[in-house]
Amino acid sequence: MARLIVDLGIAQMTPNQVSEGNKYERSGDSLTRIWIAVVVVALSATVAVGIMQIGALRSAMDATRSAINAATSRAPVTTSQHESSMLIREGAQISVPEGSPLRGKLTVGAVEEREIQRKLILPAVVEADPARTVKVLPPVAGRVTDLMVQLGERVVQGQELAVIDSGDLAQAYADIEKAKSVRTLTKNALDRQLNLEKAGGTAIKDREQAQSDYSQAVAELDRAESRLRAIGVPPDQKEQSRLLSIRAPVSGSVIDLQVARGAFLNDPTAAIMTIANLGTVWVTANVPEKDTASVTKGQDVEVVLAAYPGEVFAGKVLFISDVLDPDTRRTKVRIAFENPDIRLKPNMFANATFLAPKLTVPVVPTLALVLKNETDQVFVEVAPWTFEARPIEVDFQEGDKAIVSRGVRTGERIVVRGGVLLND
Q1: Is residue 264 located within the same domain as residue 236?
Q2: Distances from the Cα of 22 to the Cαs of 26, 33, 38, in angstroms?
């Protein structure tokens, strides 16, 4: 041990001190031995002090650790005592003991019952009934010499709309005259052959040929008269002219006009005007895909137009399209309205309110709903001031009330305010 202390003392000495010590040791002077002894004693004292300091530090750390453990062990006891004074949890039930401050923060009420009628409000537009809309086509090619109507004008069936100067009409008249002449000629030839056949002066084949020619002449005359009727001219009309009068096929309003005086018409498939009978119109709404199941044929609908904001037009769903529009993902729904005074005009904007059948359902305040794990739940009172969390299904919300489809019954008492304080 003495040797170790001496070695430690020497190790703590500087190189100069070692060199000096070596000189003193070589000289054998007694002062050198005294100096070494002093150094050894000093180093021993230093080591002793260090050991004492390490022990004190270790004792302080042990004391601190004991204090922390004691504080930690006491904390849960404090929290548990505080919670037990507010409420008591026993399995799925939560009890609020008498004297708990939570009683003043919770409001308990009964589940109400209400008769509701769900409404779906959608934008709509007024349209003409396609079954009452007619496109007027020119039956023949020609030039428009006169136009008797204007865009938006109301017309009656048979009213003259325009006059066309047509060479096709003159050709149709000529075809009829030619067919009549051929029919007369073949009829005379057939009569002669029949008379000769009776006298025995002709062959049977000549009579048959005359009869065939007459039949063809009659058929050609029928074709020419049908062509004239298709143009719109009676076949028995005595006055023959190149001028053709276009008349209204139905009563209604001229909602589209594509011709003017002097225009030449050469496409019999291009309409010169459109006439719509607006005595009955459609209000068409586009129902989103997610709400399609909420609309049925015959369902009551209330329509309010921007032109008549204070008036409600009541109708029923007439038609629901069987095809979903691929671009808008909506379904066309049409409501028919009688329109004798033409107040509803095509392209008017409107709001259509679809009314579902009335139902009696339980409702709860929206403040009673507590969200847990993405599920709505309420706290049902199973005993005085004892509650149990129960998940419910909310059909939809209307104002500050939630319409419940499943989970609670009418008359059950639930926490209508402050239920979030019971949520764990």
Answers
A1: no
A2: 6, 11, 16
